[in-house]
Amino acid sequence: MQNQTKTNLRYRLKSLINTFVTGGMEPSKASLSISLGFLWGVFPLVGTSTVLCTASSLFFKLNMAIIQAVNYIVYPIQLALLLPYFYIGAPFTGFTINGSSIDKIGEFSFSLNSLAEISGDLLFIAVNMLLGWLLLAPLASFIIYLVSKRVLTSRQSKVSSIGDNGRNSKG
Q1: Mind listing the pLDDT tens digit for each residue in 87-144?
Q2: Which residues contact residue 144 at a Cβ distance below 8 angstroms, ignoring those fewer than 6 apart?
């Protein structure tokens, strides 16, 4: 009797944790929330990921808490990837950062000519980073989707098997 109570308690606890992690949704939807949170969380235009995650969550009817949590967790990775994104995208545009570009930003004066030059350089930097992101992030996000789906599916089946064992031992 005591063993049966422990099994039922373990089933309830694991079921509660599984429901909390997945938000009560099926593993594929929870995995999509995780992968899109990562995809938009490492988007190279800093400050846009929260809006992109919210839009994805509403559009695909995903768990907003999961997608935003992953977005915030990967924020340090987003910052760390800005320069690699630039260098990965640079061969496609031919734009590179040279000393004069950095000097222009460092010696910023409030003339319209220098503002236009700096804006043009920043635009090319953003384009390079977007190209680098397009080459890396979707593949990484897809891999994260597959792995998280497998983990969540196995977790769900383990919780179900514990519950089935607890119910079978009653009979």
Answers
A1: 899 888 887 766 555 555 455 555 556 667 767 778 888 899 999 999 999 999 999 9
A2: 34, 35, 38
Do residues 108 and 114 lie in contact, with contact meaning Cβ atoms separated by under 8 Å?
A: yes
pTM to 2 decimal places: 0.70
Rounded to the nearest 10 degrees, what angle do helices 27-41 and 75-93 cross at?
60
CA distance 46 to 52: 11
Which residues contact residue 32 at a Cβ distance below 8 angstroms, ignoring those fewer than 6 apart? Answer: 60, 62, 145
Q: Which two tokens stand for residue 139?
A: 């593949």
What whole-number distance in Å separates Cα of residue 105 and Cα of residue 126? 15
Report the chain's C-alpha Rg in angstroms: 23
